[in-house]
Design a protein that fits this description.
Elements lengths: L1 H12 L1 H27 L1 H6 L3 H28 L12 H30 L7 H33 L7 H26 L3 H24 L9 H28 L2 H5 L2 H31 L10 H31 L8 H32 L4 H28 L1
Helix pairs in contact: 2-7, 2-11, 2-12, 4-5, 4-6, 4-7, 4-9, 4-11, 4-14, 5-6, 5-8, 5-9, 6-7, 6-8, 7-11, 9-14, 11-12, 11-13, 11-14, 12-13, 13-14
C-alpha cells in the first residue's frame, strides 16, 4: 500500500514534467525523423562535399547550445519573476536576443575555420576554405534567425500561460535545430556546388566575417547606463570560451559519423533514426540540466558531491522519458524506412536492439553528466544556464555518436 502511494506521489508531483516533457520529446522525435529522411535524401551533397557530416552535426549541436541556453536563461528569469515580454534596451529578452545572434556569428565562423582544418588534417577530401566557412556561417545565420523566432514564441506562450518552459524548451529547440539547420546547410552547399565563380563565394564569406566583427565591436564598445552591466556582453564573454570547447566535442562527434558515412548510407533506417537518436540524448540532457539549474538558482537543490533526493528523483524521470521516447524512435524509424522503400540489410530486432541498448547507456550517462555540470558551474561561481547546457549538450552529442556507432558495429 505504501509502495503504491509512493509511486502515485512520484507521478503526481511530476505530472507537469511527464505531460509537457513527454509531449515535447515525442514531437521533437517525430520532427527529427523528418530531419533524418531529409539527411538520407541528400546523399549526393554528403558525398560531394568533404566533411559535410562533420559540419552538419557540429552545426546542429551549436544551434542547440546557443538557443537551448537562451531558453534556459529565459526559463530561470520566469521562475525568479524578473522576465518581461519586452524588447526594450536593458531587458533580459533584448540581451538574450543580442547575445544569441552575436554568438551565432562568432561560433559559426569558428566552426567553419576549425571544421575545414579538421577536413584537411584527416584527409577527408579537398574543399576551398572560403566555401566551407560560407556554408557554416550562412547556414548558421539562416538557421539562427528561425530558431530565435521559435524561442521567442515558446517564451511568449509559456509566459502568458504560466508554463514551466524548462520542460519544453530543450527538446523543442533541439528538434527545431535539427529540422531547420540541415536544410539551411544544404541550401548553402547547393549554392557552393553550383556557383560558377569561386570569387563570389570568397566575397560573400568576407562580408559575413566583417559582419561578425562589426556586431561584436558594437556590443563590446557601446556605452552603458550608470550603474548597470551589459547582460548581452556578459553572456557572450562567459559563453564564448565554453562554446568553443563544446564545438570541439561536436566536431569530434561529427568525425566519428563522417568515418562511417559510406556504411550508413546503405542502411536507410540508420540514417533516418540517427538525428532523432542524437537529439534525444541532447533533449533529455537539456531538460534535466535546465530543471537542475533552476533548482540551484532557487535554492531547492544543494550543490553537493553526491546527488540528493531531488536530483535522484529527476534522474528517474529521465529514465522513464528515455525508455518511452527511444522505443518510439526505433519503431517509427523502421516503419518510415519500410514506407520509403526499404530498411537495408537489417532486421527490426536489430534496430530496436541498437536503439534501446544505446538509449539505456545514454539515459544513465546524461543524468550524472547533467547533475555534475550544473554543480560544477555553481562551485566555480558561474551561471549554470550559460555553461551547463552547452557542456552537457556537446558531451552528450559526442557520447551519443560513439555509443550508437559502437552499438551499430557490434550488432550489425
Amino acid at each position: 500500500m505504501g509502495s503504491n502511494k509512493n509511486v502515485s506521489g512520484f507521478f503526481g508531483r511530476n505530472r507537469a514534467v511527464f505531460v509537457m516533457g513527454l509531449t515535447a520529446l515525442l514531437i521533437a522525435a517525430t520532427a527529427d525523423l523528418f530531419a533524418g529522411i531529409f539527411l538520407g535524401s541528400m546523399e549526393v551533397y554528403i558525398l560531394a562535399i568533404p566533411g559535410m557530416m562533420v559540419l552538419v552535426y557540429s552545426a546542429i549541436g551549436m544551434r542547440g547550445n546557443i538557443f537551448g541556453a537562451m531558453g534556459s536563461r529565459l526559463g530561470t528569469s520566469m521562475h525568479m519573476g524578473t522576465f518581461k515580454m519586452s524588447f526594450k534596451k536593458g531587458t533580459i529578452l533584448r540581451a538574450n536576443i543580442e547575445s544569441a545572434m552575436g554568438l551565432t556569428f562568432l561560433i559559426s565562423l569558428a566552426m567553419g575555420v576549425i571544421g575545414w582544418a579538421i577536413v584537411a588534417i584527416f584527409d577527408f577530401g579537398d574543399i576551398h576554405p572560403a566555401s566551407f566557412i560560407f556554408i557554416s556561417m550562412m547556414g548558421g545565420l539562416l538557421a539562427g534567425i528561425v530558431l530565435l523566432g521559435i524561442n521567442l514564441i515558446i517564451a511568449r506562450t509559456g509566459f502568458r500561460r504560466n508554463w514551466d518552459v524548462d520542460n519544453i524548451t530543450a527538446p523543442l529547440i533541439a528538434a527545431a535545430g535539427d529540422v531547420v539547420t540541415m536544410p539551411m546547410l544544404f541550401i548553402c552547399a547547393w549554392f557552393v556546388v553550383n556557383c560558377p565563380d569561386q570569387n563570389i563565394i570568397n566575397m560573400l564569406t568576407l562580408l559575413l566575417i566583417l559582419a561578425t566583427v562589426v556586431i561584436l565591436i558594437i556590443i563590446f564598445t557601446r556605452k552603458l547606463l550608470a550603474g548597470r552591466t551589459d547582460e548581452a556582453r556578459r553572456i557572450i564573454a562567459q559563453s564564448s570560451p565554453i562554446l568553443l570547447m563544446c564545438l570541439m566535442l561536436d566536431i569530434a562527434a561529427g568525425i566519428i559519423i563522417e568515418n562511417k558515412t559510406e556504411e550508413l548510407v546503405v542502411l536507410p533506417v540508420l540514417m533516418i533514426l540517427m538525428p532523432a537518436f542524437l537529439n534525444e540524448g541532447n533533449a533529455l540532457s537539456g531538460m534535466l540540466t535546465a530543471r537542475l539549474s533552476s533548482m540551484l538558482h532557487l535554492g531547492t537543490l544543494r550543490a553537493s558531491r553526491l546527488p540528493g533526493k531531488n536530483a535522484v528523483e529527476n534522474f528517474f524521470i529521465n529514465y522513464i522519458l528515455a525508455f518511452i521516447t527511444y522505443g518510439y524512435i526505433g519503431v517509427i524509424a523502421f516503419l518510415t524506412a519500410i514506407a520509403l522503400g526499404g530498411t537495408g540489410d537489417i532486421s527490426f530486432i536489430k534496430v530496436m536492439g541498437i536503439v534501446m541498448m544505446s538509449g539505456i547507456i545514454m539515459a544513465v550517462a546524461v543524468s550524472f553528466l547533467s547533475y555534475y555540470a550544473a554543480v560544477a558551474a555553481v562551485r566555480f561561481d558561474l551561471d549554470p544556464d550559460d555553461h551547463s547546457i552547452p557542456i552537457t549538450s556537446s558531451s552528450t552529442d559526442l557520447i551519443s555518436a560513439a555509443v550508437l556507432i559502437g552499438m551499430i558495429i557490434m550488432i550489425t
